[in-house]
Design goal:
Layout: E1 12-16, E2 19-21, E3 23-30, E4 34-41, E5 44-52, E6 56-62, E7 78-84, E8 89-97, E9 109-115, E10 118-121
Antiparallel strand pairs: 1-2, 1-7, 3-6, 4-5, 6-9, 7-8, 8-9, 8-10
Length: about 120
């Protein structure tokens, strides 16, 4: 597969239940549903364990007069969509906000992280 140059990073758009939020940065996602951990013993590597992890979508977004930060605490079973410059779209259904939202009033930003069982990369 040959590498084709083009825009890979930069602009991104975040939608929660169809409402767009102003993305500042720290955008990320994880579609993995498990993590492997190497099991070591005194004689060397014994194998590995597999443990489940929750897929997620996260971003730092801008607070505005129309945003009710307190609403994020109650966000459960929401659809989250992340559109990236590369053309990739990450979608999650039935997601919930897992972090306590704290606004940085110096630049009117806050972090959100949504986790759930159904996150797809497309």
């Amino acid at each position: 597969m040959a590498f084709e140059p083009g825009a890979l990073a930069g602009t991104s758009y975040l939608y929660i239940d169809g409402v767009e939020y102003a993305v500042v940065g720290s955008v990320g996602y994880q579609v993995s549903r498990s993590v492997k951990e190497t099991l070591m013993g005194q004689g060397g590597v014994h194998g590995f364990s597999v443990k489940p992890v929750a897929p997620y979508i996260k971003a730092q977004i801008r607070d505005s007069a129309g945003t009710r930060v307190g609403d994020f605490e109650g966000m459960e079973s929401v659809s989250v969509s992340l559109e990236l410059t590369s053309g990739k779209r990450i979608t999650g259904n039935g997601m919930w906000c897992v972090n306590a939202v704290e606004v940085n009033s110096d630049d009117a930003t806050f972090e959100v992280r949504f986790e759930g069982a159904d996150v797809q990369e497309g």
